[in-house]
Design brief:
Elements: H1 2-18, H2 25-29, E1 43-44, E2 50-55, E3 60-65, E4 71-77, E5 91-94, E6 100-109, E7 115-123, E8 128-131, E9 139-143, E10 149-154, E11 157-162, E12 167-170, E13 180-182, H3 187-193, E14 199-201, E15 207-214, E16 220-225, E17 241-246, E18 256-263, E19 268-271, E20 280-287, E21 293-300, E22 305-312, E23 318-325, E24 338-340, E25 346-351, E26 358-363, E27 368-371, E28 379-386, E29 391-396, E30 405-410, E31 416-418, E32 425-430, E33 436-443, E34 446-454, E35 459-464, H4 467-473, E36 481-487, E37 493-499, E38 510-515, H5 533-539, E39 543-548, H6 556-561, H7 569-584, E40 588-598, H8 600-611, E41 618-622, H9 633-640, H10 647-652, E42 665-671, H11 680-691, E43 697-701, H12 713-728
Pfam family, one: DPPIV_N
InterPro entries: AB_hydrolase_fold (IPR029058), Pept_S9_AS (IPR002471), Peptidase_S9_cat (IPR001375), Peptidase_S9B_N (IPR002469), Serine_Prot_S9B/DPPIV (IPR050278)
Domain Peptidase S9 prolyl oligopeptidase catalytic: 533-729
Length: 729
C-alpha cells in the first residue's frame, strides 16, 4: 500500500505536466483568455484628490478618493432622475466647477477618432437633465470654461447652447458634407494628426476659436457597400450601395484651412491672418493664458518646419514666436507636447533638436532658456507640467529602447526623479494637479499591474495585479519570449525577440515565421506582456521571431529618420538580413522562413518577397500598401515628400513595381471597405502580378475596414492564415 502511494506521488507531477493546455485560436480570438484586466475610465476631478467612474451598468457616476479608494458620493444616478430620458451613459464630461455633466448615448463611430452621439446636460444640484439639441446626433460637445455654455458640431456647422437661457445660436452656416467642415477635422487630419475636435473656448469663455476646412477641391474616394452582416446593411440587400468621402492622396489637393474666432458678445467672426505663401497644415489651435491670444500650431506641407504663431484675436494679426526645422520631418507628436506656463512668459516644447527627443524651456519670444532632459535616449511621452511644484512629468526609454520608465524633472533642470520602480514597460496617468498617478506596468512574463502612487513615486496601493491571469497562464504551455540582437552587413545593430516551439529541441530544425510592422517610429520589440498568435504557432511547431528594423522608435532621430524619402528600402533590407541571420541558426530551417504583417507590415511582406531572392518561402500581407501614390497626403509626404518631387523614392520601393521579382508564395488579404489603406492597393497589385505571370493567393472580406473585425471575422482570419502556413511552410 505504501509503495502504491509513493508511486502515485512520483507520477503525479508528470501527470499534471502532461495535462497542461496549449494556446488555441479560440483563446486568442473568442474567449480572449490572456487579455489582462486593467483600470480605465477614471476621470480626475479638479481637486486632483478625487476621481469619478461609471458604475452600476453605466447608470451611475460615482466619486472616489484617490488616497483611500473609498466611494465618497454618487454624483449622478439615472434611477433617481425624474422622467429620465436615457437608460445608460456611454461617456461624460464635467464642467469646470463640477456643477454640470455632459453625457452622451447612441455613439456612432465615423472614423478612427470621430463619432456622433446624442448629448444631454445634467444639472447636479437640481437633478435635471435636458437634451443638448433636438434629435441629437452631435459631435465634440464641449463645455465653456465658465460652464454656462456648450459648443458642438452638427451637420458640419458649429452651434452654441446657452444653458441658462435654453437658447441655441448657430455660429457657422456654410457646413456641408464633403464640401465644408467647421470645428472638426477632415479625414486626413483626423487620421494622421490624431484628433477629432478643431475648436477651442477662450479662458474667459468670451471667444470660440475654430478651424474651417474647405474640402470642396479634394477628390473623392468611393468604395462599395454590400448587405453583409455584423453589421448588416439591409438597404444594400439587392443592389450594393457606396460610400464617398474626401481623401487627398499623396501629391493631390488638400483641404484649404483657415482659423476663425467667434466673439460671443459682439457676435462677430474674424479670420486670423496666416501667411499663405506656401501650403500649410493647422493641426492644432490652443489658447494661451492671456485673453485674446490664440496659439496656432502650423506646419508646412512637407512637415519639415513647425511654426508656433500667436494671434491677436482683436486685430487678427499673427506673430511667429518659434520655428523648429528639420532636414527630415517634424514628428506629429510635437502637437500635444506644448505647455504655456502661467507666468505668460515661457512655454515647454518637446523636440529632436540635439538628435534625440528631449524637453526644452523657451521664452515667449522663442529664445531657448534651457534643455531639461539630455542624453542618448528619447523622451517617449510628455505627461505635463505641475505649476505648483514646478515639475515636468514624462515617459522615456532611458535604460533601453525596449523598456519604458516614468520620470519627473524640475523646471530649473536641477532635480530629476525616476518615479517607476520596475524594469519593463511603464506608463502613467496623472491626476489633474499631478498629486497622484496610476502606473501601468508589465513585462514579458508579468501581466499588467496597475498601481496608485503619489507624485514622488511612493506606492499607495495596487489597483489590479492580474494574479488570476498569472494563475491561469500556469495551466498552459507557454514558450518564453527571448530577446536577441544581431549586426547587419551594414554594421547596424538590430533588436529582436523570438518564441521557440514548445518542447524545443536544439538538434532539430524548425520553420520560422517572422512577424513585424516596421513603420516609422513604431516598435514591436518591447519588454511588455502579450500572449498572441506566436504562442499558438509555437504549440504547432513554429519558431516565431520579430525584428525592429531601421526607421523604428526609441533609438534617436538618425535611426528613426534614415528611411526618409525611401520608405520600405532600408526596412525590407533589414528584414531580409534578419531572415538570413535566423536561417544561420542551427535550429532554424533556412528553407522554410515566412514573413507576415498588417498594413505597413503587409507592405513589408510583399516587398520582402520581391527583394529577398528566395529567402522567404511564404509571405502574408494583410491590408498592405502596395504603392505609396495611393496613400494619403499627410502621412506619405511626411516621410516621402510629394511624388512630383520624389518619383524615384515612390516607384523604386513600392511592391506594385516589383511584381516581376516575386518569389515564394504570397497571400493577400484585404477588406473592401478599408477607408485607410484602400482595397485599390491590393487590386492594382493583383493586376501587376497577373500580367507578370506570378501566382498568388487572395482573400477578401466584404464591408470590413482596415481592422478587419466583426462577428466571427477575426477567428476566421487567424484560422485561415494558420492553415495557409501549415499548407505552404
Amino acid at each position: 500500500m505504501n509503495r502504491l502511494i509513493l508511486l502515485i506521488a512520483l507520477l503525479l507531477p508528470i501527470t499534471l505536466k502532461a495535462q497542461k493546455k496549449t494556446v488555441t485560436l479560440e483563446d486568442l480570438n473568442k474567449s480572449h483568455t490572456f487579455n489582462a484586466k486593467s483600470v480605465s475610465g477614471l476621470k480626475s476631478m479638479n481637486d486632483g484628490i478625487h476621481y469619478t467612474t461609471l458604475e452600476n451598468e453605466a447608470r451611475q457616476i460615482v466619486k472616489y478618493a484617490y488616497a483611500t479608494g473609498k466611494k465618497t458620493a454618487v454624483i449622478m444616478d439615472l434611477e433617481k432622475i425624474e422622467d429620465c430620458p436615457i437608460q445608460h451613459i456611454q461617456g461624460y464630461e464635467l464642467n469646470n466647477d463640477e456643477s454640470k455633466i455632459l453625457v452622451y448615448i447612441n455613439r456612432k463611430s465615423i472614423y478612427r477618432h470621430s463619432f456622433k452621439a446624442d448629448y444631454y446636460v445634467y444639472d447636479i444640484k437640481r437633478k435635471e437633465i435636458k437634451a443638448l439639441s433636438e434629435n441629437g446626433n452631435e459631435q465634440v460637445a464641449t463645455f465653456s470654461p465658465n460652464g454656462e455654455m456648450v459648443a458642438y458640431v452638427k451637420d458640419n456647422n458649429i452651434f452654441i447652447n446657452k444653458l441658462k437661457f435654453g437658447t441655441t445660436a448657430q455660429i457657422t452656416e456654410d457646413g456641408a458634407f464633403n464640401k465644408v467642415i467647421n470645428g472638426i477635422p477632415d479625414w486626413v487630419y483626423e487620421e494622421e494628426f490624431a484628433y477629432n475636435k478643431a475648436m477651442e473656448w477662450s479662458p474667459n469663455s468670451m471667444e470660440l476659436a475654430y478651424v474651417h476646412f474647405d474640402e470642396s477641391k479634394v477628390r473623392e474616394y468611393t468604395f462599395p457597400l454590400y448587405k453583409g452582416s455584423h453589421p448588416t446593411h439591409q438597404a444594400n440587400a439587392l443592389y450594393p450601395g457606396e460610400y464617398k468621402f474626401k481623401y487627398p492622396k499623396a501629391g493631390e489637393t488638400n483641404s484649404e484651412v483657415s482659423v476663425h474666432v467667434f466673439h460671443l458678445k459682439n457676435r462677430t467672426t474674424k479670420t486670423m491672418k496666416i501667411d499663405d505663401s506656401e501650403e500649410y497644415y493647422i493641426p492644432r489651435i490652443r489658447w494661451t493664458h492671456e485673453d485674446g491670444r490664440l496659439a496656432i500650431l502650423k506646419m508646412n506641407r512637407l512637415q519639415n518646419q513647425f511654426d508656433l504663431l500667436i494671434a491677436n484675436t482683436a486685430s487678427t494679426l499673427t506673430k511667429n514666436i518659434f520655428t523648429h526645422r528639420s532636414k527630415y520631418y517634424i514628428a506629429e507628436d510635437v502637437l500635444d507636447n506644448l505647455t504655456f506656463l502661467n507666468d505668460g512668459k515661457h512655454f515647454i516644447y518637446v523636440g529632436e533638436m540635439d538628435g534625440y527627443n528631449h524637453i526644452y524651456l523657451y521664452t515667449m519670444a522663442g529664445m531657448k532658456v534651457r534643455q531639461l532632459t539630455k542624453g542618448a535616449w528619447d523622451v517617449m511621452e510628455y505627461y505635463g507640467y505641475d505649476a505648483k511644484k514646478k515639475m515636468i512629468y514624462y515617459k522615456a526609454a532611458e535604460k533601453s529602447p525596449t523598456q519604458r520608465e516614468v520620470y519627473a524633472v524640475s523646471l530649473d533642470g536641477k532635480k530629476k526623479y525616476k518615479l517607476s520602480q520596475k524594469e519593463g514597460t511603464n506608463a502613467a496617468v496623472f491626476s489633474s494637479n499631478f498629486k497622484y498617478f496610476i502606473n501601468y506596468y508589465s513585462n514579458t512574463t508579468t501581466p499588467k499591474v496597475v498601481t496608485l502612487h503619489d507624485q514622488n513615486g511612493k506606492l499607495i496601493r495596487t489597483l489590479e495585479d492580474n494574479k488570476a491571469l498569472e494563475t491561469k497562464v500556469k495551466d498552459y504551455k507557454i514558450s518564453p519570449k527571448e530577446f536577441f540582437s544581431f549586426t547587419t552587413s551594414e554594421g547596424v545593430e538590430l533588436h529582436g525577440w523570438m518564441v521557440k516551439p514548445i518542447h524545443f529541441d536544439a538538434h532539430k530544425k524548425y520553420p520560422v515565421l517572422m512577424t513585424q510592422y516596421s513603420g516609422p517610429n513604431s516598435q514591436q520589440v518591447l519588454d511588455k506582456w502579450n500572449i498572441g498568435w506566436e504562442q499558438y504557432l509555437a504549440a504547432e511547431g513554429y519558431l516565431v521571431a520579430c525584428v525592429d528594423p531601421r526607421g523604428t522608435g526609441a533609438r534617436g532621430e538618425e535611426f528613426r529618420k534614415c528611411t526618409y524619402m525611401k520608405l520600405g528600402k532600408l526596412e525590407s533590407d533589414d528584414q531580409i538580413e534578419a531572415a538570413q541571420y535566423l536561417g544561420s541558426l542551427p535550429y532554424c530551417d533556412a528553407e522554410r522562413i515566412a514573413i507576415w504583417g498588417w498594413s505597413y507590415g503587409g507592405f513589408m511582406s510583399a516587398s520582402c518577397l520581391s527583394k529577398g531572392n528566395g529567402v522567404f518561402k511564404v509571405g502574408i500581407a494583410v491590408a498592405p500598401v502596395t504603392n505609396w501614390r495611393y496613400y494619403d497626403s499627410v502621412y506619405t509626404e511626411r516621410y516621402m515628400r510629394r511624388p512630383q518631387e520624389n518619383a524615384k523614392g515612390y516607384d523604386d520601393n513600392s511592391p506594385i513595381n516589383m511584381a516581376e521579382n516575386l518569389t515564394g508564395r504570397l497571400f493577400l488579404i484585404h477588406g473592401t471597405a478599408d477607408d485607410n489603406v484602400h482595397f485599390q492597393n491590393t487590386l492594382e497589385y493583383v493586376e501587376q502580378l497577373v500580367q507578370t505571370g506570378k501566382q498568388f493567393d487572395m482573400f477578401v472580406y466584404p464591408n470590413r475596414n482596415h481592422s478587419i473585425f466583426g462577428g466571427n471575422t477575426r477567428m476566421h482570419l487567424y484560422t485561415m492564415m494558420s492553415e495557409y502556413l501549415k499548407k505552404n511552410l
